[in-house]
Write a structure and sequence with these properties.
InterPro entries: Aldolase_TIM, ET-N_metabolism_enzyme, GATase_2_dom, Glu_synth_asu_C, Glu_synth_asu_C_sf, Glu_synth_centr_N, Glu_synthdom, Ntn_hydrolases_N. The chain is built from 59 helices and 64 strands. It is α/β, with parallel strands linked by helices. The longest helix is centred in the C-terminal third of the chain and has 26 residues. It starts with 6 loop residues before the first strand and ends with a helix.
């Protein structure tokens, strides 16, 4: 493996990603004025947070592009007659070495003169160094300026062309001549010029004296400020560029570059790119080429290169759709999140990507038009503003100074579409697959091979079918699994066939969001055009458009039969030699691949069109070439020969059985695939029925399409065409640095070596031999990929490990304290009951744990702990197992070797050379010294225990190992003198002396190490409540961190030992509310960007797992699925993440960002640290505890060890290692694992799966269906003990001390990052050659003396809190009005967020109960929660608020803001009111707030006297809002609450909404086309139904509230004219509620058995609940009331019968457990009480039998009504048990009333649970009474 000079170990310093702030402003009259620069400075000064800086405070880069100032250049040139259009300006960065500046000047001068351009001025732009930090001076580059004039004969167009030619001439030399390295033209134009550098945004204008010169007058300017993930980004790649500034990331950049190079090659040209050219710089270069060489206007070029999402959007006029489709046939899309600002001196504008993943706000006055990343960057007089607008997804706004008007996106597209007859052009250029004649397709295969043999020949195994193909075909979706994928890494086993396994899918995180393919798929498309692109083909040709790249046999038959596009068929099989050794197999495969490539190249040159590569004809003589290899090789050949765009590759292959195999084929260059094995399997399942087989194939394709959308979305791509050939993979232990593999996979970046090409070739031969031997399906290999097999490869959690964990859970608990065996709560209660149930049962909560073995351990107790025998045994046996069958990368990493004990040559040989001689940097050996002498010889001698015999034995071992590489070797007394070459020389030269061992008492104490340990993030939802609390309890009790996961926690846990000290904030924001953030036990908030099981995919909690308690915690509906979207819908970029970190710091705690190990993770981590994170958590790719699709578990991300090492190296290199704690996961099981992670750079160590193992998980991997241990389902069987987990963590800490002692490190901190103490073992299981030299390289930590970090600023909140304390806490005011006199600007972020959390924490946990009661503003609810009384605390602000205004708004607060706000208003609100008032102006358009307002809100209200951006109310679970205009996806993922919109709206209205209600004023009947039909049902408000009448009341109420809080004129009008305007309102209700709670829908969906079971369980729970309450409150059941004489069929009588039945049943069980022995009444009563309080499984089962019998006589319809009634009661219970109770949700309460009414109407009087149960319990009681 070669290591470039830009690298620091794995971290590539040149690899950089960036996001930013952008904008333009233009003076509409076109008159040049200095005021534009003054306003630009104002705009740049307000958004420092959108740029980044290094730890020294040096800006990542910022700049401006301005039109040429006539007055300024007349002045500096001394040419008063100079006119615009007659002169041009070139600005340059000069070469790095000053001695080469003259050569650069000469090049510039000659290039201009050769093109007839005369230089009139050369100068260096003067700068003001006083405005930048001293540390920045060394990074500043001189802007060298050249002013030139045109020849009088040149017209404007010729002038532009000549400037372009001169520029190209300069670049052609500058970018290739090493002496001119650093010479870079910032701009060279007759219209504009660029000033930029390594600056912060507020420094740009004052730094350049030119820009502060009052004679510098301009009419237009656009700017850019960069937030780079690198602390030393290139100044040349700062922006703007020549024509544009780009905030975003082009995920298709690699393909775009390929396209550009091919076009240039076709024109006999060459593209010259500057070193380290960014995607944005490349886009600018392409844009310039399109304008000059293709003679396009700027607008056409921008639209064609970055088209809107036209494919599924019916709002586009037909002529525009036709134009965009025509463009799509020619253009290689620039796909990815983007806010693009463009300008050429005449036109200046802004464009947003097709999904709107960057914010752009516009403002227009009579004089100015501005578009910027944030609203309010320029403080215009409000009354002067005509429009406050926004750029919509795929939209555009530009100003044309020639036309003197602005154009919107619709206007521009219509204008462009009218310029040409695109319809006729399109008809000539494409044909649709759906228009072709259809025929039954059948793949022609070799008859001599059976389907079974073919499957094995294709490298498939039994699990390929059981886990991958079959579920997709049978269910239409991928199989879900859990508990990770722990089979041995590819470098340690080659059991699995095929080649797709060697490529892991990449995914977007932080700098680029994954796309929401779950709910925003209409912005994505699988459409693919097959055939030559029109401008790459000889003559006229067509492309064939297919709706998906996954083809059926019928599709492929139709393609073969058509005649519009040429089709060439090429076999990708070869004659296989079963006797071939590795070398012969390698040669044969290379020859076969190259032969096919030759045929493909010939077909592309001669015919073009479509090439079908087929391996259908495998037989006993011919083997299939591995599909990814063949596709990639063919793709690379076509690229090299410049004919890539003349042909599309279609793979007809049997090597495709999974979604990942489809992805690899497409990703490496296939335009479409037809999986042969799917066709065969479909026929097998259909038993020969052709129609059934076609249905099976269709089902598989449906699943494959869905998976492909998810895979595209993971890397941020909208179109399949963008994914095809994009190579969005990283090698998974495949050595792509090896010459042969590098040739075929040149773009795959190798990290740690691994499998070589010869091993791949031999595997093909071996699997073909197997194929010839198999007879039946049972003979297909079963490899044990998902569950360990004794003859298979090792697993991280194999049988031995699981058994060891079971044994550890059974060990006695070490503690001087015991738990009470008698009394209120005994051992079982304390370990099994959640806090709420403990309180429910006994009236006590966390106090019960004190002074027991369940309490917190003191540091002294932790330090005094003794390692337990079963842990010792486990650690020893696991070490032996890993030595024999390694699975993880760390299993082949060892500590320094010790030869002190060795005496024989064999012993020396074994100990010294178990470390790999190639893959290591160093060789630490204890007991041996090697001196490297000046003459390059070596002297070896023993450190101790010298004897001549040992010396001779060592000599023999060395000679045996190295042979002829030892040139000389002589013994001299106690020394051996050696000269060596090759590996022997390398080994001796890198021989190192390790630390000496330390006494154990010199090592840091165990309690400090337990504080470095943490439980994994597992949600309440994924885990049942007892298990979730047990994990937190076990970690907390020994001082480790516990992590809540993303589901929130019940408020009863806050402040207790069972509250998680880390609380997670994930994309669904479930359970996040003000109280959650105010928990006094909270130490860290974790922002989960990705998780190891399914990075980039989000998560889903199935409806079955959404119990009443889960629904209450998450703000959902019992039984209705809950979704965490793939992206955080408020985090689309690095600066967005910085804002979210700032939000989280409102809780005054450390903030973690969780990432997943992947390519470039070091670069991303640097960006995250710069964004303000305190802790970075690196997860591995083995999946942890999360449920995910098997392909995600198996084929995404990279090993945890590699990611951890790279992140540590990156942080060290960038001077950020001191800033952050690095937490890591990856199946830690023993202290050895922890120490290895520490040596790789870890500070803190996570235990996820292991924590569950210590709570009796048995690794059944059936978590999402039925958990035998009761951890994830079946909570009644949970039997874990938190003390066992705590004890395990103490075992880990103490063994860590022992290992540190042995390694000679005093502390974990001292050992951190000492990766030189790890060595790659030469293991017999190894496949190929691993090379860990980069991974194990120790990178020196860069320390900054006075570092500058991006810190949270809450000055406004601090001031407000002080004032609140004064008025409310100290002076006891009845209400408080807090006024912020300062005018807010964009720098005032999260205003009110910290205040809300501080007040909540103060009221619940800090102020005494007595003091709280004395505060008139506070009241206490029935649960004991202290809250501000409604509307008693007013906060008044004005101006332009920064992001996240009024985040976490809480009960009693009222925010009044006059002005504009940016993104995230009311984010996470849980109460109170927020009112945004218009400041005036905006008469034509008035968007006052930004995107994702109320994201994750669970309560409170928001009233906006104007419009809002996209995703308004996303994931709202209880807030009420009224707004006057929204963008796309309003109400997305909403689970409760109410939204009313009185203005315009976009697509995706109520996407994924599963609760609550949305109201829309729709006077033009546009909603029908734009709402989410699969999520909600639309109703008219003016209907006469009960439902409509109820919602009429709700609408009126909301309108009145809107008027009350904002004074809205629109709301007043609607109220005054409600009787007529009511007809213009529609309201949307969730289909999920209709489906789950309406009895008619229930009847259709559920069989009788399931209805009965659900009701029976509910009846039993109800009966037990009565007893639990009575026990808790110390009351007699039913208050001791007895029925009167003659009283029979009354509720009281039913209740008494049922009570006696329950008691009697429980007594029988207790007696049965004593096996007939006499027991006392006290024992019997105690036993009965215990059964009831713990909901004993046996008791529940017996009572359920009674309940089922009681339901036998009801009809199916009646059962459905009873189930509906039960579900409505559950819903009511969930609503009342929410952490945040709904305060103002008429729609929700109305729905409940309506359903109750419908149920009564359907069944009459509904039987209550007492009478239902008594129907059978009375009979049971009679049977039991003697």
């Amino acid at each position: 493996m070669e290591q470039s000079q830009n690298q620091f170990g794995l971290y590539d310093h040149s690899f950089e990603k960036s996001s930013c702030g952008v904008g333009f402003l233009t003076y509409k009259s076109g008159v040049q004025t200095h005021d534009v620069l003054l306003k630009a400075n104002e705009a740049l000064c307000t958004v420092p947070h959108r740029g980044g800086m290094s730890a020294e405070g040096v800006g990542d880069g910022a700049g401006v592009c301005v039109d040429l100032s006539l007055s300024f250049f007349r002045k500096i040139t001394g040419l008063p007659t100079l006119e615009l259009g007659e002169f041009g300006v070139g600005n340059f960065f000069l070469p790095e070495l000053k001695k080469n500046w003259d050569a650069a000047d000469k090049l510039i001068k000659e290039s201009l003169e050769k093109n007839g351009l005369r230089i009139v001025l050369v100068r260096d732009a003067p700068v003001n160094n006083s405005v930048i930090r001293p540390a920045a001076l060394k990074y500043m580059l001189t802007v060298h300026q050249v002013v030139f004039i045109k020849d009088e004969t040149m017209d404007a167009k010729t002038f532009d062309r000549k400037i372009h030619d001169a520029l190209m001439a300069i670049e052609a030399v500058a970018y290739l001549d090493p002496d001119l390295k650093g010479l870079y033209p910032l701009s060279m134009s007759a219209h504009t010029q660029v000033y930029k550098g390594r600056l912060n945004s507020n420094e740009v204008i004052p730094y350049f004296y030119d820009l502060t010169d009052e004679d510098h007058k301009i009419h237009s300017l656009f700017f850019h400020t960069r937030f780079s993930t690198n602390t030393e980004p290139q100044p040349s790649m700062a922006q703007p560029f020549r024509l544009m500034a780009h905030n975003g990331e082009l995920n298709t950049d690699k393909k775009n570059r390929l396209s550009e190079a091919t076009i240039a090659q076709m024109k006999n040209q060459q593209i010259y790119s500057p070193p380290g050219q960014s995607d944005s710089a490349r886009l600018d270069q392409t844009l310039e080429r399109r304008l000059i060489e293709d003679d396009l206007d700027l607008i056409t070029a921008v639209v064609a290169m970055m088209p809107p999402a036209w494919e599924n959007d019916t709002r586009f006029p037909e002529d525009v759709r036709v134009m965009l489709e025509y463009f799509s046939l020619y253009e290689e899309k620039n796909d990815g999140p983007a806010a693009l600002i463009f300008g050429n001196g005449n036109v200046v504008g802004a464009r947003l990507d097709r999904l709107g993943l960057r914010p752009l706000r516009s403002v227009e006055t009579d004089e100015y038009l501005c578009v910027m990343s944030e609203a309010g960057q320029v403080d215009f007089d409000p009354e002067s503003i005509l429009r406050r607008g926004r750029i919509e997804a795929g939209g555009m706004l530009y100003y044309d100074h020639e036309a003197k008007q602005s154009f919107t996106s619709d206007e521009a597209l219509k204008m462009l579409a009218s310029k040409r007859d695109y319809r006729s052009l399109l008809e000539k250029a494409r044909k649709n697959l759906d228009d072709l004649p259809r025929t039954d397709g059948k793949t022609k295969v070799a008859e001599s091979f059976t389907d079974v043999q073919r499957s094995v020949a294709y490298g498939l195994n039994q699990e390929s079918f059981k886990f991958l193909l079959d579920p997709m075909m049978q269910t239409g979706k991928e199989k879900i699994s859990a508990m990770g994928y722990g089979v041995a890494i590819n470098a340690l086993t080659d059991q699995e066939g095929g080649m797709s396994k060697y490529f892991s899918q990449r995914f977007a995180q932080v700098t680029n969001p994954p796309l929401d393919s779950l709910r925003e798929a209409d912005g994505m498309t699988l459409r693919v055009a097959l055939g030559a692109k029109p401008h790459f083909n000889k003559g006229e040709t067509k492309q064939l458009v297919v709706p998906t790249p996954v083809l059926s046999p019928d599709d492929l038959a139709a393609i073969r039969a058509q005649g519009d596009v040429e089709v060439t068929e090429i076999a990708m099989t070869f004659l296989v030699d079963h006797k071939a050794n590795k070398t012969k197999a390698q040669d044969d495969l290379i020859a076969a691949v190259d032969a096919v490539c030759d045929e493909v190249e010939e077909a592309a040159r001669e015919k073009g069109g479509i090439v079908i590569l087929s391996d259908a004809m495998v037989d006993e003589k011919r083997a299939a070439i591995p599909l990814p290899l063949m596709i990639s090789a063919a793709n690379q050949r076509l690229i090299e020969q410049g004919v890539r765009f003349r042909v599309s590759l279609v793979a007809e292959s049997g090597q495709i059985a999974s979604a990942h195999q489809i992805a690899t084929a497409l990703g490496f260059g296939a335009s479409a695939v037809m999986p042969i094995v799917v066709e065969a399997r479909a026929m097998e399942f259909a038993k020969g029925d052709l129609d059934a087989a076609k249905a099976n194939i269709k089902q598989f394709i449906y699943a494959a399409n869905k998976s492909l959308m998810k895979t595209m979305g993971k890397v941020g791509l909208c179109t399949a065409e963008s994914y095809i050939g994009g190579e969005f993979f990283e090698p998974n232990f495949l050595d792509t640095d090896e010459a042969i593999l590098k040739r075929y996979f040149p773009n795959m970046k190798n990290t740690v070596g691994g499998v070589d090409f010869a091993s791949v070739a031999k595997s093909v031969v071996d699997w073909h031999i197997r194929a010839c031997e198999v007879k039946t399906e049972d003979d297909i290999p079963l490899l044990g990929l998902f569950k360990e097999r004794s003859e298979g490869a090792g697993h991280t959690y194999g049988t031995l490990a699981v058994r060891g964990f079971v044994e550890m859970t059974e060990e006695p608990i070490q503690s001087d304290l015991s738990a009470p065996e008698k009394g209120d709560a005994n051992v079982n209660d304390l370990r099994l009951l959640p806090v709420e149930k403990l309180k429910d049962a006994y009236g006590k909560s966390s106090d019960s744990y004190r002074n027991t073995s369940f309490g917190r351990r003191t540091p002294e107790e932790i330090d005094a702990f003794k390692i337990t025998p079963n842990y010792r045994k486990f650690a020893l046996e696991l070490a032996k197992e890993r030595e024999a069958r390694p699975a993880a990368l760390r299993d082949v990493l060892s500590f320094p070797t010790d030869i002190s004990w060795a005496t024989t040559a064999d012993e020396f040989q074994h100990e010294l050379f178990r470390h790999d001689l190639i893959g290591n940097n160093n060789f630490y050996v204890r007991g041996l010294r090697v001196h490297h002498n000046k003459d390059d010889s070596f002297t070896a001698f023993f450190a101790s225990k010298y004897s001549h015999e040992r010396l001779v034995a060592l000599s023999v071992a060395l000679k045996k190992q190295f042979g002829d590489e030892l040139l000389t070797m002589e013994t001299d007394g106690e020394h051996i003198h050696i000269t060596a070459k090759g590996l022997a020389h390398n080994y001796l030269a890198n021989h190192k002396r390790p630390n000496g061992k330390l006494a154990l008492n010199k090592v840091q104490p165990a309690h400090e190490i337990t504080a470095m340990l943490a439980s994994g993030a597992m949600s309440h939802g994924a885990l049942v409540a007892p298990a979730h609390e047990a994990v937190a309890h076990g970690a907390n009790m020994v001082g480790a961190f516990s992590n809540s996961g993303e589901g929130g926690e019940h408020y009863s846990r806050y402040g207790t030992i069972r509250s998680s000290s880390i609380k997670q904030l994930a994309s669904g924001r479930f359970g996040v509310w003000t109280g959650y953030l105010a928990d006094p036990t909270l130490e860290e908030i974790e922002i989960k960007i990705a998780q190891g099981a399914k990075p980039g995919e989000g998560g889903q909690l199935p409806g079955k797992k959404v119990t009443v308690e889960i629904a209450a915690a998450r703000g959902g509906t019992p039984g209705v699925e809950l979704i965490s979207p793939p992206p955080h819908h408020d985090t689309y970029s690095i600066e967005d993440l910085a804002q979210l970190i700032h939000d989280a710091k409102a809780a005054r705690v450390r903030v973690i960002v969780k990432l997943v190990s992947s390519e470039g993770i070091g670069t991303i981590a640097v960006g995250v640290a710069k964004a303000g994170a305190d802790v970075i958590n690196i997860a591995g790719n083995t999946g942890g505890t999360g449920a995910a699709a098997v392909t995600s578990l198996k084929n995404t991300g990279r090993a945890a060890e590699i990611g951890l090492a790279e992140v540590h190296q990156a942080l060290c290199a960038n001077g950020l290692r001191d800033k952050v704690v690095l937490r890591c996961s990856g199946a830690h099981q023993t202290a050895t694992d922890v120490i290895k992670s520490c040596l790789l750079g870890g500070d803190s160590f996570e235990f996820g799966t292991t924590a569950l193992m210590m709570l009796k998980c048995v690794m059944a991997k059936n978590c999402n269906v039925k958990c035998p241990a009761g951890l994830t389902t079946n909570s009644e069987v949970f039997d874990g003990d938190p003390r066992a987990l705590g004890q395990y963590l103490m075992n880990i800490a103490h063994e860590c001390r022992e290992i540190l002692s042995n390694l000679g490190f005093k502390s974990m901190r001292e050992a951190r990052g000492r990766s030189d103490y790890l060595h790659l073992i030469k293991h017999p299981s190894a496949i190929g050659q691993m090379d860990l030299r980069n991974m194990l390289q120790v990178v020196k930590e860069v320390h900054i003396k006075e570092p500058v970090y991006l810190e949270a600023h809450f000055e406004i909140d601090d001031m407000l809190l002080k004032e609140f304390k004064n008025k409310a806490v100290q002076r006891h005011h009845r209400n408080a009005k807090l006024v912020v006199e300062k005018k807010l600007d964009n720098r005032n972020k999260t205003v009110g967020g910290q205040l809300a959390i501080d007040i909540e924490r103060m009221l619940q946990h800090e102020i005494s109960e007595k003091h709280v009661k004395s505060m008139p503003m506070v009241y206490t609810d029935d649960r004991g929660r202290n809250m501000l009384k409604p509307e008693t605390l007013e906060i008044h602000t004005h101006g332009s608020a920064g992001q996240s205004f009024a985040a976490f708004c809480n009960s009693g607060m009222v925010f009044h803001h006059v002005g504009t706000c940016n993104d995230g208003v009311g984010k996470g609100a849980s109460g109170g009111n927020i009112a945004i008032h218009t400041p005036g102006g905006g008469t034509e358009e008035n968007y006052l707030i930004g995107n994702f307002a109320l994201f994750g809100a669970s309560g409170g209200s928001l009233f906006v006297e104007g419009g809002a951006g996209d995703r308004f109310g996303v994931r709202n679970s209880g807030a009420t809002a009224v707004v006057e205009g929204v963008g796309d996806f309003c109400g997305e993922y909403m689970t409760n609450g109410a939204i009313m919109n009185l203005g315009g709206f976009g697509k995706g209205f109520c996407n994924g909404m599963s609760g609550g209600v949305a109201y829309q004023y729709d006077p033009y009947d546009q909603l029908e086309a734009l709402y989410s039909h699969d999520s909600v049902k639309l109703h008219r408000l003016d209907g006469d139904s009960d439902r409509a009448k109820l919602h009429q009341i709700a609408v009126k109420r909301l309108l009145r509230h809107h008027v009350k809080f904002t004074g809205s004129e629109k709301a007043k009008f609607l109220l005054e004219n409600f009787d007529t305007e009511m007809a213009n309102f529609k309201f949307a209700t969730p289909l999920a509620l209709e489906t789950y709670q309406n009895y008619e829908a229930i009847l259709k969906a559920k069989p009788r058995k399931e209805l009965t079971e659900e009701l029976a369980n509910a009846l039993v729970s109800y009966q037990l609940r009565k007893f639990k309450l009575a026990y808790r409150d110390g009351k007699v059941i039913a208050n001791g009331i007895i029925p009167q004489q003659g009283e029979t069929d009354t509720k009281l009588m039913y209740e008494l019968i049922n009570n006696f039945t329950v008691i009697n049943m429980a007594q029988q069980i207790v007696k049965g457990r004593y096996r007939g022995a006499e027991i006392s009444a006290e024992t019997l009563n105690s036993g009965v009480r215990k059964l009831i309080l713990t909901e004993d499984f046996t008791l529940m089962t017996k009572l359920s039998g009674i309940a089922r019998k009681a339901l036998e006589d009801y009809s199916d319809l009646e059962l459905a009504v009873l189930v509906s009634d039960k579900r409505m009661k559950d819903y009511k219970t969930a609503l009342s048990n929410r952490n945040v109770r709904l305060m103002d949700s008429i729609g929700t309460y109305g729905w409940i009333l309506l359903q109750d009414r419908l149920n009564r109407k359907a069944m009459g009087e509904l039987p209550d649970f007492e009478s239902l149960f008594a129907a059978t319990s009375s009979q049971e009681l009679v049977k039991q009474v003697p």
